[in-house]
C-alpha cells in the first residue's frame, strides 16, 4: 500500500473521529497534570480541519496539501501549547510530502519532519514527559520497518504501535517541560496527554490504511 491523497484525507477524518471518541480521556489526563483542556482543544481543532477539508473547492492534489491544511487549521483553532506544536509538526511533515503518494520511506520522512518540528518548537527531548516520548520511538520504529522493506502501511503501523508504548511509558516519568513540570514529583504516575493524543493520531493513520475503498 502507498499512502496517497485519499489516504491522507481518511487519516484526517479518522483522527477527528478518534479524538472525539477519546476527548474525555484526554481532558482527564490533562486535568491531572495540566490545564484540563487538551481534549476539548484537540477536538475543536480536528473538527475544524474536517470542515475545511469538506469545503475545499477542488480535491487536494498532493499529500502535502492535506498536511498543510491540518497545520494551518490547528495553529488557528487549538489553544495552549498543542496548537503551535501540532501545527509545526504537520507543517514540517508537509514539506517532505509534496507527492501524490508516499511509500514506506516517504512515511519515515513525514514522521521525521513532524518530530523535528515538535522539537524545534518545544525544545523537548525524550524522557521529559511530552509528546516527544511518543513521537521519537515512533520514528525509530518507522525507520526499522522501512529498512526491512515495509510499505507505507507497515511503516505507519510500526510507528503507531511504538507511539502507544511510548505514551504509556510516560506514566513513571517526571515532567520537566510544559505546565506539568510545575507539579514536580506529583507529575509522576500520570500519562502525558500530548503523548496520548500523538498515539491516537498515528493509530488513526493505520485505520485509514485499512479502510481504503
From TrEMBL:
Pfam families, alphabetized: Dak2 (PF02734)
GO cellular component, one term: cytosol
Protein's GO biological process: glycerol catabolic process
Keyword Phosphoprotein: no
Alphabetical keyword list: Kinase, Pyruvate, Transferase
Top-rank lineage group of the source organism: Bacteria
Domain DhaL: 6-207
Family annotation (InterPro entries): DhaK_L_YcgS (IPR012737), DhaL_dom (IPR004007), DhaL_dom_sf (IPR036117), Dihydroxyacetone_Kinase (IPR050861)
SUPFAM superfamilies: DhaL-like (SSF101473)
MF term (GO), any: phosphoenolpyruvate-glycerone phosphotransferase activity
Top EC category: transferase
Enzyme Commission number(s) from the entry: 2.7.1.121
PANTHER family: TRIOKINASE/FMN CYCLASE, TRIOKINASE_FMN CYCLASE
Name this protein carries in UniProt: Phosphoenolpyruvate--glycerone phosphotransferase
